[in-house]
Amino acid sequence: MKTLILASASPRRRELLQQAGAVFEVIPAKGEEHTTKDAPKDIVQELALKKAQEVAANAPEGSLVLAADTVVAFDGKVLGKPKDPKDAAGMLTMLSGNTHSVFTGVAVLDQEKNPVLNFYEETKVTMYPMSPEEIEAYVKTGEPMDKAGAYGIQGKCAIHIEKIQGDYNNVVGLPIAAIYQRLKKIGIEICGNS
After folding, report:
1. Is 69 a catalytic residue?
2. What is the mean pLDDT of residues 7-32?
3. Can you tell me the mean pLDDT for 69-85?
4. Contact present, 72 and 79 (Cβ < 8 Å)
C-alpha cells in the first residue's frame, strides 16, 4: 500500500478518511487558489489538481497525493468561503428556502506526479427558509466562516437542511466512497482495514 498524503488542512476531510480506515499523512497545500475556469465543476477540479501538484512536488518517493476543493453554486454564482460575517449572512440569505449544488473536485497524483484521478461530485442541497434572526444567530457561532457557502451540513446548520440529493460526504468536503471505488477499480488500495 502506497503512502497516502492528504493535501488539506480540513479537519472534516481528515475525519472522513479516518472513518474509512485510510492510513495517511497530512501535508496541507498552501498556495493561493486561483482558477482559470468558470463552471463550478471545472473550478473545483482545477483547484484540486493544483493543490495536489503543489504537495506532490515535495512529497516522499512512492506516495499518493489526494487533494480536494469544494464550492457551493446557486443561481449562476459560485460561493466559496465567506470574507466576513456580513458576507456569510448574505450567502445564507441567498440559500435560505432554495436548492443549491455543492461541487467537490478531487485529484489524486501518483509518485511520478501523474494524475490518477481528477473528477468532481455534485450534490444538491435544499434548505428550509431561515429567518433573519436565525441567520444572524448562526453567523454569530462562527461556524460559517471557514466553509464554502457559509454553512456546515454536519454542524449547527443541520437543522436548516430539508433534503439532499447525492452524497452527504461530498457536502462535508470529500466524496470518500467515489474516491475509494474509483481507486479500487484501477488497483489502488487506500484503506487498511476494508
Report:
1. yes
2. 93
3. 94
4. yes
Q: What are the residues whose beta carbons fall under 8 Å from the beta carbon of 27, sequence distance 6 or more? A: 5, 6, 7, 55, 58, 59
Q: What is the pLDDT of residue 60?
A: 87
Q: According to the model, what pLDDT value does residue 193 have?
A: 53
Phi-psi region of 109 (alpha: psi -120 to 50; beta: other; left: phi over 0): beta
The two beta strands, 161-165 and 99-109, are unpaired
pTM above 0.90, yes or no: yes
Question: Could you identify the residue written with the cell 466553509?
Answer: 147
Contact status, residue 77 vs residue 49, Cβ threshold 8 Å? no
| Separation between Cα atoms, residue 45 and residue 154, nearest integer Å | 23
- What are φ and ψ of residue 23, in 5° steps? -105, 120
Query: Which one of the listed residues 38, 42, 69, 87 is annotated catalytic?
Result: 69
Distance CA 185, CA 188 (A): 8
Work out whether strand 3-6 and strand 24-26 pair parallel, antiparallel, or are unpaired.
Answer: parallel
